[in-house]
């Protein structure tokens, strides 16, 4: 009788490990579908997860049955389509630490609206995670603190970010490092956090070239509503390549 109970216990433990292994594999499959360039073939996914293509096909159907919208078929490759019916996302322990560090860094260094958004995002994440992961989020090892935070922007940084997304030109008064005042009309591309200040990367209509403007030297910001869509992404790539080339020549890292 004791042997029978022991055998049943061992079988049950093995079954539990099998279920956990499959659950972990499904989460890993979701992660692979998210970060691999689509369409991703079953062979690529199998190599990423270390399983056979046959297993991949079954797991794809399981995910579809749970509500994941996955486009594609065997022999053609797969593409994950994001929607609200996707299964809950899980995080590895290091991923939780990375999220906490990033959100705390934004809370410490971002403009007021962005810092507040980071604190809200942290609270939402804590509320949505399973209890064990939420506990790790609450008591994460990593934190962020700056003794010299960046200078506060003197314009509405949230409005500037929206102008970047909407691809609308903006105009503002600007005082350069020599104290010279000018009025600039620019195409806003991105906001970059430097050592002591937030900088707007933009195409300057006055200089007809790329320029970086410190947000703590800007005043009287106006969003003109004039669209420069769809030029933002190619312009930003060109600016970034220019910065990389310049920093490479100077020996600095970008």
From TrEMBL:
<dbReference type="InterPro" id="IPR026881">
    <property type="entry name" value="WYL_dom"/>
</dbReference>
<dbReference type="Pfam" id="PF08279">
    <property type="entry name" value="HTH_11"/>
</dbReference>
<dbReference type="InterPro" id="IPR013196">
    <property type="entry name" value="HTH_11"/>
</dbReference>
<dbReference type="InterPro" id="IPR036388">
    <property type="entry name" value="WH-like_DNA-bd_sf"/>
</dbReference>
<dbReference type="InterPro" id="IPR051534">
    <property type="entry name" value="CBASS_pafABC_assoc_protein"/>
</dbReference>
<keyword id="KW-0238">DNA-binding</keyword>
<feature type="domain" description="Helix-turn-helix type 11">
    <location>
        <begin position="25"/>
        <end position="79"/>
    </location>
</feature>
<feature type="domain" description="WYL">
    <location>
        <begin position="158"/>
        <end position="223"/>
    </location>
</feature>
<dbReference type="InterPro" id="IPR036390">
    <property type="entry name" value="WH_DNA-bd_sf"/>
</dbReference>
<dbReference type="Pfam" id="PF13280">
    <property type="entry name" value="WYL"/>
</dbReference>
<protein>
    <submittedName>
        <fullName>Putative DNA-binding transcriptional regulator YafY</fullName>
    </submittedName>
</protein>
<dbReference type="GO" id="GO:0003677">
    <property type="term" value="F:DNA binding"/>
</dbReference>
């Amino acid at each position: 009788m004791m042997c029978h109970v022991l055998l049943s216990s061992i079988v049950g433990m093995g079954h539990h490990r099998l279920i956990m292994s499959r659950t972990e594999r499904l989460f890993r499959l979701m992660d692979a579908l998210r970060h691999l360039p689509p369409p991703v073939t079953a062979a690529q996914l199998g190599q990423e997860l270390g399983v056979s293509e046959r297993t991949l096909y079954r797991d794809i159907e399981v995910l579809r049955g749970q509500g994941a919208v996955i486009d594609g078929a065997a022999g053609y490759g797969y593409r994950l389509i994001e929607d609200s019916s996707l299964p809950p996302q899980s995080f590895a322990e290091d991923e939780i630490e990375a999220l906490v560090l990033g959100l705390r860094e934004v809370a410490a260094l971002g403009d007021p609206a962005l810092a507040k958004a980071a604190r809200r995002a942290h609270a939402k994440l804590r509320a949505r995670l399973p209890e064990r992961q939420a506990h790790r989020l609450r008591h994460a090892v990593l934190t962020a603190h700056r003794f010299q935070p960046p200078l506060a922007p003197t314009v509405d940084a949230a409005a500037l970010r929206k102008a970047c997304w909407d691809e609308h030109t903006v105009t503002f008064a600007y005082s350069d490092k020599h104290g010279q005042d000018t009025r600039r009309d620019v195409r806003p591309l991105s906001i970059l956090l430097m050592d002591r200040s937030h900088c707007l990367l933009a195409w300057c209509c006055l200089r007809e070239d790329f320029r970086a403007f410190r947000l703590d030297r800007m005043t009287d910001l106006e969003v003109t509503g004039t669209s420069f869509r769809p030029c933002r992404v190619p312009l930003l790539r060109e600016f970034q390549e220019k910065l990389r080339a310049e920093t490479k020549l100077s020996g600095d890292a970008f």
